[in-house]
Amino acid sequence: MTIYIDIVLIENLIMNFIILLATGIILKEKIKIIRLFSSSLIGAIYSVVSYMSILEIYSSMILKIILSIVIVYIAFNPQTMKKLWKDILIFYLTSFVFGGAAFALIYVVKPQDILMKNGLFLGTYPLKTVILGAIVAFIIIVAAFTVVKSKITKKDMFYEIEISLNGKIIKTTAMLDTGNGLREPLTNTPVIVVEHTLLYDVIPKEILNNLENLLGGEFDSIPEKIKQEYMSKLKYIPFSSLGKQNGMLLGIKAESIKIKEMDKEEEKKNIIVGIYNKSLTKRGEYRALMGILE
Fold first, then answer.
1. CB-side neighbour CA atoms (13 Å) of 180
2. Which of 97, 114, 117, 96 is nearest to 106 (CA)?
3. Considering the entire predicted model, what is its pTM?
């Protein structure tokens, strides 16, 4: 069977480009065609060198790992080692899925013959078969990663919590925001943000209905008895999120918070409840927002 070097180069260039494109979409990278093309070309040249056995070290695992690092670095320019290894992991996973899907399609099409040489699948099938296989594999990869990521994200993001406050229990759904590092500045106590409407049974409505006034230092609308009981308990918490820069929340320390995950339950003691005077979502999927609580 006659195999032409230019065909090996073009086939691998196309495959590498689509694998890197799928990897970039999965990673939500800013795609730069020239970078993807350059990386794909390097990989394709390596495939030609491997096929022709020009270098004896073509099959070296270390060389292949180095080549992967170079390809990923040129394609996506990761700025940290953590990001680099994450990109490489997704690149390998995408390559494995792509290889299986593309080879399966080529096999179904029934080319005249297929051979493997130096780790490369080669055959007399037309170039359009390779392109079709690459497109089908691309669709499968992106769709599969999107579904899996969605399932994992939803599972990991939402928790049922119970807040013990003023001797009463508040049950709600909280979303985990790993980027949320909100803390009360004086004591460095973690803060869970909760919609104020959840707290009407545990905190006087005179406070909950006048949050903006209290944050502005206006206390005239608060009865004296409530002032004496609650003013010393309220905490002022600066934040830069929830659609507002340099904002401020009122908070109050909870007795405890229980976080339920599947069949596990974890209790946290030193937590402040930040009172948010609007809805966190339009559809009410969750009514509390928390970071990673230590």
1. 21
2. 114
3. 0.49
pLDDT > 70: percent of the chain: 74
58-79, pLDDT tens digit by residue? 456 777 788 889 999 999 998 8
